[in-house]
Specification:
By secondary structure, this protein is of the alpha/beta class. It folds into two domains: 41 residues; 190 residues, Chitobiase, domain 2. The protein contains six helices and ten strands. The strands form two sheets. It has a seven-stranded mixed sheet, sandwiched between helices. The longest helix has 39 residues. The N and C termini lie far apart (71 Å).
Length: 241
């Protein structure tokens, strides 16, 4: 074989091998990312993901734009991992989540299932009722720490993950003070789950508060971890054995 042709063949083979190596590396990287996501969110490929959707506090049976977008974000996450999605209202779902990972979106005054989850598994957490003229309206309390809403400037969402007694899959509870904080919370979780896994004690059971700043300027994008309140939130509840 002439030297020029031999060099061409060697160069072509090298390119193919290099390209294949890059593809394999990228494929392997994507698989690892999906596996980490699956573990953090408790989603098992092929298993149904339940989404329990909140409604507007002042208009039961309807949902705000940001809550719908939060649902879309969860649905996209489930699809990425390979989980079919089933959407329910709090009034429709009167059973255990069983082997299905559940995302329950909305606070206790707009989502009765969230209220039940809080009462049963997060006894150290409370939400003050809404009152437009009341100081501390819809404040989140975890133990002795309160997170007060400054509308449009600084608002909060409580996010918890736990596995109910008798279930084999977790519930992820997203309780924002407003619809935009619900959306901000799930967006933050999807973006920062790897960093969160490094700073929280356990990815199997946790309760954190997410701060959403400058909402009037940045909408749902300026979200960050405010505090891990797991100890206070779960203080009076012993996990199943």
């Amino acid at each position: 074989m002439p030297a020029v042709l031999l060099n061409f063949v060697i160069g072509l083979a090298t390119s193919i091998i290099s390209g294949g190596s890059v593809w394999l590396w990228q494929h392997g990287k994507n698989v690892r990312i999906l596996r980490r996501k699956s573990v953090f969110f408790g989603l098992k490929p092929g298993t149904t993901c339940l989404i329990v959707m909140t409604s507007r506090y002042d208009k039961p049976g309807t949902s705000s734009h940001d809550d719908v977008q939060a649902l879309v974000e969860v649905g996209a996450l489930a699809a990425e991992v390979g989980c079919p999605v089933s959407v329910w209202s709090p009034e429709e779902l009167r059973e255990s989540n069983g082997n299905r990972t559940e995302f329950c979106i909305g606070g206790p005054y707009s989502n009765s299932r969230a209220r039940g989850h809080l009462s049963s598994y997060l006894p150290g957490v409370s939400f003050r009722p809404y009152g437009s003229s009341r100081r501390g309206s819809i404040a989140i309390a975890a133990g002795r720490v309160r997170f007060l809403q400054d509308p449009g400037n600084k608002e909060y969402a409580l996010v918890a993950k736990f596995t109910p007694d008798g279930s084999s899959a977790p519930v992820i509870l997203i309780c924002g003070q407003t619809a935009v904080t619900n959306r901000a919370a799930i967006n933050f979780l999807k973006r920062e789950y790897r960093e969160l896994a490094k700073v929280i004690e356990s990815i199997d059971r946790f309760c954190i508060v997410i701060r959403v700043a400058a909402i009037n300027t940045y909408g749902y994008h300026a979200a960050s971890l405010e505090r891990d309140v797991s100890a206070a939130a779960f203080a009076a509840h012993s996990p199943k054995r």
